[in-house]
Amino acid sequence: MERPNLFDYATSELSQDAFFAWLLKWASHEYLDTDSELSNLGRRMLSRMTGIDEDSIRSVEVGRQWENIDIWVEVNDDTFVVIEDKTGTAEHDNQLERYRKTAEDWYAGKRDRFHYVYLKTGNEPASSLKAIEERGYGVFSRRDVLDILASYSGDDSIVKDFTAHLESLENDTASFRMLPMAEWPWHAWEGFYMELEKWYPGLDWRYVANPSGGFLGAWWHFVDAGTDDVEMYFQIEQGRFCFKLSCGDGISDTRTVRTRFFEILLDKSVQHGIDIVKPARFGNGYTMTVGILQKPVDCFGDGTALRSLLDNCCSIVDECVEEFDRRSMKASE
After folding, report:
1. What is the longest distance spanned by two Cα atoms in the chain?
2. How far apart are CA 120 and CA 85, in angstroms?
3. How far apart are CA 189 and CA 192, in angstroms?
4. 26-45: pLDDT as tens digits
5. Cα 68 to Cα 84, 91, 329, distances in angstroms
6. Rama region for 303: left / alpha / beta (φ>0; ψ in -120 to 50; rest)
7. 240 has which bridge partners?
8. Which residues on adjacent β-strands are paired with residue 69?
9. How far apart (Å, rounded) are the C-alpha atoms in residues 47 and 44?
10. Taking the domain 6-174, which CATH number applies?
């Protein structure tokens, strides 16, 4: 019988803060004789997070929520570590810059070395993580944590529960490879979008709120129309594969632009052998869906069929914009 897991109930970021603070405290040399396996695990975790040599770690002091810093760590007598710990949320309100300034102002003249860690056990877009690294924080992912936890050969139930908890998240994230799309859990959609990031470097994804309840969406391949303040792009809305238009403030008649693009899109879809249907309701705003794939690939498999379909869709976007520009230029002659 599967045993109850503490972290099925302790799901908040504060609970995760407590786990990492507890584990990092074990890195202090004084606990090596108490439980060598746990102490060495704490040392490996701290070393991998910061680059500090394991053998140089002697004294470790750990605390939480000082000046809103999730976890702070004093190592020996010369190093201070700031850890911003995230599960499903993302960085906001310039908090990373504030924490850096707080630490360096408070410890000026007292500590010579500072390390800044963005610890993320949930999933996050690559574009967001890149921006965090540009601010001087090292990103430490769920995969990084699991790689270290896998080296643990002790019998502590807290470590085992946390490992199982992260492995469950990892499996859910990868489940898009095996399950039909209609059965994908939330984390599978995140995993799917993370895979698409490898194919399309400009892709971004996140939750989009709307009156219907919102969706987890991904968008990429933005192509500007040369003669108007218009761009076309492709978007996936957690099951709906959409051709989208974005019109700038300079476009007063979005309805006409939308109609022209829809007509062109239908022609191009026939040429490419792709079934595209009209959305249930055409919008008239500055961001509109002009067409939806009727039959997207249902299973990911090795990704070959889906990659081919999406590449085709990107080509259609290119051709639609090119044809729109050609017709606009002809009409202005």
Report:
1. 86
2. 6
3. 5
4. 999 999 999 999 999 999 99
5. 9, 13, 57
6. left
7. 237
8. 66
9. 5
10. 3.40.1350
Q: Are 260 and 205 in contact (CB under 8 A)?
A: no
Helix (H) or strand (E) holding 261: helix 254-272
| Domain ranges for the chain | 6-174, 181-332
Burial of 51 (C-beta count, 10 Å sphere; 0-12/13-18/19+): exposed
Q: Sheet holding 138-141: strands in order across?
A: 60-66, 69-75, 79-86, 113-120, 138-141
Beta strands in 173-229 (DSSP E): 204-208, 215-224
Question: How far apart are alpha carbons 116 and 303 in whole angstroms?
Answer: 36
Q: Residue 251, exposed/middle/buried by CB under 10 A (0-12, 13-18, 19+)?
A: middle
> What's the CA gap between 46 and 145, in Å, rounded?
11
Confidence (pLDDT) at 252: 74
Mean per-residue pLDDT of the chain? 92
Is the pLDDT at 276 greater than 70? The verdict is yes
